[in-house]
Write a structure and sequence with these properties.
The protein is of the alpha+beta class. The chain has 3 helices and 7 strands; from the N terminus they run ββαββαβαββ. The chain has helices spanning 35-54, 102-110, 129-152; strands at residues 6-17, 21-32, 60-74, 83-96, 115-123, 157-171, 203-215. The strands form 2 sheets. A 4-stranded antiparallel β-sheet has the order 3-4-2-5. A 3-stranded antiparallel β-sheet has the order 1-7-6. A hairpin with an 8-residue loop joins strand 3 and strand 4.
């Protein structure tokens, strides 16, 4: 085993970047005394919501149905009883890439009947170049720190023994929700709502590595 001195360091990088995707979560509901009517109303409102989202074209990157349920609501909570109503819910997940239309889309969705909107959740893409840039900066920081230690001891780096990636992470902020509980009531005003101003949330990406380097023998003579 080599008796060359080892220098172990940790390199870290924290970057700020603009988000690349805004995700919305939309729940469309119906509630009727008859199961079939509840399903028909839900189908109609779901189609109206999807038509609205799809009208934005390439500004919306992805639309997915996250789930659907038709639930009987009983007259009595503590024992089995007659069904008083049926509640239907469709969960729609939306990924928006053009933030210029986001405020308008959110308010128009919230204006739909019996519609609940939450979000936006701001994100970077999984393959965003920001993650690679953060990893490189963390590695450069480790090399610079090890070189600084070596120079302080009158030595120089001669090789890399190990580089361990602690991983990349996005530092989450407190969640923010924007909701319109049931949209506008039937027969309400038909005017388009004013778009809400939404400012993209800065994304913070952290990368860290641990590294070990070999070095020449230090010069420990007093100067």
């Amino acid at each position: 085993m080599s008796d060359a001195p080892l220098i172990s360091v940790r390199g870290e990088a924290v970057l700020e970047a603009e988000p690349e995707i805004a995700r919305l979560s939309v729940h469309v509901q119906s509630q009727e005394s008859d199961r079939r009517t509840a399903l028909d109303r839900l189908t109609e409102r779901n189609r109206r919501c999807l038509d609205l989202v799809e009208s934005y074209g390439d500004a919306v990157e992805r639309v997915e149905t996250g789930g659907l349920s038709i639930t009987p609501l009983l007259k009595y909570r503590r024992r089995e009883g007659d069904v008083r109503a049926y509640r239907g819910t469709v969960w729609i997940k939306i990924a928006v890439v053009d933030f210029g239309v986001l405020g308008e889309l959110v308010t128009r969705l919230g204006d739909l009947e019996r519609t609940f909107v939450s979000g936006p959740d701001w994100e970077l893409r999984r393959d965003s170049e920001v993650y690679g840039r953060a990893a490189r900066q963390a590695a450069h920081e480790a090399v610079a720190r090890a070189r600084s230690y070596a120079e302080a001891l009158g030595a120089r780096l001669t090789g890399l023994v190990e580089l361990s990636d602690e991983g990349l992470s996005r530092i989450p902020d407190a969640p923010v929700a924007l909701a319109a509980a049931y949209g506008r009531a039937p027969g309400g005003a038909a005017e388009e709502p004013e778009p809400i101003d939404l400012e993209p949330e800065t994304q913070i990406v952290r990368a860290a590595v641990e590294a070990r380097f070999t070095a020449t023998q230090p010069d420990l003579e007093p100067r």
